[in-house]
Records
---
Amino acid sequence: MSDRAGELLLTEPAALDALPAALQAAFAAVASEPDRSVRRVWFDTFDRRLSRGAIQLEHRTGAGPAGYRLRSDTGERLNAPGRASAGPRLVDALPTAEIRDRLRPVVEMRALLPIATSTGVRRVLRLCNPDGKTVATVEVEETATPPAVPPRVTVAALRGYADEAELAVRALLATPGATPAVGTALDAVLAAGGPQPAYSSKVDVAQEPAMPASAALARVLLRLLDTLEANVDGVLADVDTEFLHDLRVSVRRTRSALKLAGGVLSPGLADRFGAEFRWLGDVTTPTRDLDVYLLGYDDMVAGLTAPVAELEPFRAFLSRRRAAEQRRLVRRLRSERFATLTGRWRAALSAETEPGGGTAAELAATVTSKAFRRVIRDGSAIVAESPAEELHDLRKRCKELRYLLEFFAALHEPAAHRRLVGELKTLQDCLGDFQDGEVQRDAVRRFAAELLVEHAAPAVTLLGMGELAAGQHHRQQTARAEFVRRFARFARPTNHRLVAELVGAGG
């Protein structure tokens, strides 16, 4: 067993040649193993969830048995033998339960994508004491591709010989051109490959209170368009379900921005493009709805009294329907209508250079205050006898308020912004459970009727689906009972003061 003692970079060509002599001066013997070709492929999600969690996952071939290696900044080390496929893979495709279980809470439903590849030569030097016993190893990796990656040296101690490994590190650092490594091998490979495009679905745009309102809104809308377009390829390739989710969130945010603040743009712009984004929202809905059912399928059936196997025809039905809807969606996203929409929308937003609608601070204050007052008004009018549609409408109003808070976050005091968003999210979660319970209950009933007509499921499956529908109805009723408490908390004077603080922060 060995422990990593240090990593160094050889920044001068002569340092590589001088390395054996430096070690021979400090140890009784240095034995060199044959050079071996090595290929390393690193994986992460599209939105870099592993990187944000300080985790690296790589697949290495050529230096010992092929397999995966998971490393984290906390010193965690997991290895798993196995081959790697060339394209994206979900966590469940990884070879060992230990790595799957470690990554699943971080990666969730996202696919792991190859983000960097290197090839090169690896040699291992064994450092021996006067008794001929190996006390440490020195691994030298020279990267051929990408070019301009300096050789990396890793010193590892065998158990009980930490002092000898430290001696090796000191000997190497005394060699001209050898320096302590800053960052990881992945960092070096990414740096050699040039700047990596960063992806985030957040609406993080720079704004100043005094800038024209039209320019501030156009900046938000362009950011949303960037996010939308960044996800198109992933939706077309059907890499994972989050590409479509993020694309749809961008569409919803865009529609809300046009509805609530589009009047500051050039005349007619909001109405003209609002209709096109409504079309885009409509054509992406069927696939996303089926994604939600399939992603939540295991949780839905977990509490049933019926055996889960009896519901398998229902899962198969959802998968078939989802595949058909995905094919329709791909045709729409490859259509001339979609290309025209995104191209003309970007051109129109880029042309929004004339000041209009007052200042950014004035726009943010006006629309945010109005949206908050509407949430309070509509929520206060809901009583026990109110129809479900009123809670659904309130959920839409809450979502609009949430989007406005995101659009103008740069103008808000950060602490007050976080508190209000947190309060709003608590209410949104309750309203979301209420809506999802009703929508999914009705959908399960509709799917059951279709399966019955198609003779595609036995009676036990239909009975199990009836139990599923009843469970969703219970979920809806539970959320409705919780709504009174959640809304009372959101409507309290503290949040009125928070809104007043936010809308006055940019003035």
---
Amino acid sequence: MTLRLFGIRHLGPGSARSLVTALDEFKPDVLVIEGPPEAEALLSWVGDEELRPPVALFAYADGEPSNSAFWPFAVFSPEWQALTWAARCQVPVRFMDLPAAAVLATQAAQRQAAAEAEESSSLAESTEGRRDDAAEVAAELSDDPFALLAELAGIPDPERWWDEVVESSAAGDRFAAVAQMMTELRAEADSDPAASERRRETLLREAQMRMVLRKVRKEHEKVAVVCGAWHVPALADPMPAAKADADLLRGLPKLKCVLAWVPWTHSRLAAASGYGAGVTSPGWYHHLFTTPAEPIARWLTKVANVLRAKDLPVSSAHVIEACRLADTLAALRDRSLPGLAEVTEAVRSVLCEGDNTLSGFVQRELIVGEELGTVPEGVPLVPLEADLRATAKSLRLAFTEVPRELDLDLRKDFDRRRSALLHRLNICGLPW
């Protein structure tokens, strides 16, 4: 039996491109991916032309829709590329993360505990301040495993460090290097016994992953595992005893839940939205993945179009000079290609003439962006969304990622019904 562990970043275009190449070479019999096992029934829709990312697997507690969780995918998500690869090659897929039923039950319990602990928050803060240096390092590694490496490399932003070292690297088998790096980091983080309790959710997830993986390895000869890079050392051989994982998972609370595919947007993939695994530049990553040929020149052309739409005088000469500046900055910083930092500086200096307000337009409309995914008809939907989509279709109202004006003549019954829907949504706090 052959096992390959592919440690990835959940939203990484370089990881996604390398993963597809590695899967083509390895040709596994089965693909094991992070995700709730209940969602395996929805994987039959992957490969449908109308299921276009960004989309998300959405789970909510039956009878309590406010208790929900989501697993988002973009076109540049390694997991999405793995799923589409499996659909194309007719390779079975297994999800190995904690069940959605357990995730929702845990969330409900955490909210209740947080409410009960609110009165004693000052005591908790004073206790937090007494951690020793070793505990601080372990906690930092647990919260953001790449922050320490980025700091050692002299790069203040961990995301930029990962982008330069992994996503934009032209190295060969980056997965072996990532596995070795994560092994060293995990050894440091696990050295503090108190850190285990703080990472209880991670420990539970990894126990579930190993339980699924043991079963899959008995049924298949060549197994490929796609998981967050941090989990690779926990899934590598030798694994701990199955009984230890079973004991850890025993008694895990669960709630009855419903799952569906839902459209998502790039702004909801951004870290600023509160998504824990979010990135600062989903629009930029989408561009890198979908435009492998001359990405910098094409990106700067997009920037020029955005600024021209604001009635700003941006010429082809501006774009050419911005390309040259980005290339020069990359050479000075010993980079093979300009990254987002170099391109952004070139845009601000040349196209925006140093005006941060103008560069803010580029940040909102391109670097983050508002790409909107789609799901095909017939896919299980959240009841409220199903009702909204049916009503919107009957009123010929299209879902778009950008706002548009709608002139309504309230003397006409059709326009009155449109107006009524828009007012109902406003009352619900869901502006169209």
